[in-house]
Here is the input.
Amino acid sequence: MLPEIKVKPPGPKARAIIERDDKLASPSLIKEYPLVIDRGQGVWIYDVDDNRYLDFMAGIATCSTGHAHPEVVKSIQKASEKFLHICATDFYYSGYTSLLEKLCSYVPKMGPKRAFLTNSGTEAVEGALKLARYHTRRNNIIAFKGAFHGRTMGSLSLNASKVTQRAFFGPMLSGVLHVPYPYPYRCPYKQARNVCETECICGKALEKDWFQNYVDPKEVAAIVIEPILGEGGYIMPPTNFLKDLRRICDEHGIVLIFDEIQSGVGRTGQMFVADLVDVAPDILLTAKGIASGMPIGAFVAREKFMTWPKGSHGSTYGGNPVCCEAAVTTLNLVEKLLPNVRETGAFMKQGIVDMQKKFPVIGDIRGTGFMLGVELINPKTGEPDAKLADELTQRAFPKGLLLLGCGKSSIRLTPPLIMQREEVSTGLKIMEECLKELT
Ligand SMILES: Cc1ncc(COP(=O)(O)O)c(C=O)c1O
Here is the structure.
């Protein structure tokens, strides 16, 4: 199958909806391009004018099993016929328990665990921050430059990727300190790339600089990190840095929190990056891909860290019964998709590497599986080319390819985990055509 554009988007039906929506929706919404979805099937999306698009972004890495996967849809239908809500904070149901069992079976290196189910990613971040503060009786949190953790006050305070997300919303949560995130292509400490990749100094700088000059580690409750940076540019830190963080947290009694809301649930070819890099956090955050798009998230903590008492934390909708069933079905499917993510993801990455030989505007290619970042640059200066990244996304859309940017000038390639080689080739051909037209 190929993309099919019957009428240049936005077509008449799409324009009519956009016109109505634009009058009423909050102007804070971004709306990357004028896609008005009617339905989705697998890796394909149809708009209201019946144009067919290939999906290279999966609703921001969320539609893990593809659009409207029949098994996920069936589990939603079955669950919704039984009951829609009862509140897991106060009562029991088997879907909730089954999802806890599933989540607590991942990342075995964390040892015995307990989990808390939420409605969203940001609610998982908020809960984890509360738990870390409660458990350690400490206040300060270390986060990273380039980070994105959500839009409620706690998670927002951890963000440092785009100033518009923070501007005029202060005061932020007190005690948050942002330190450099390793970025081998543009090392914050100006190390050569090969040095950064093998002997990253960001962890050591945290000890030698930040802990000496800014904050006593004995006052730090948690280090919160995306083990692969999402919104900030799909940047993969060197493994030795994550190992350094583990050691530092162990030495000072700090809770290590991995925000795997974007990077988890099979996206890298492993269920979680924690497995990929063999570094176990104390709290693991998940959402997005966990239920193929149904609104649910979770934080999973080492059992010995879940020290808070009855009534100290809860949620009305967290772990909604319909979402729980969608999540269990999704996770069963994703477990079987991991080999495809590794193999087809490597094929996709090689395709971009081949493209880079023809287009020097492709400065960096990073990531693994179906979590790939492509950084666009001005080849004369080496500087990020944000305009080109935006133009590429905008130009691909009317050709039937859905892309999404991240960071200053990167494109994230995050298709549904079911994507096959043929579909990857189709999408890459369109990207190449766009780059030919633009450069
Ligand atoms: C790494 C990360 N953390 C947290 C969030 C917030 O998740 P949500 O939008 O479900 O609140 C996101 C969303 O993009 C994310 O990518």
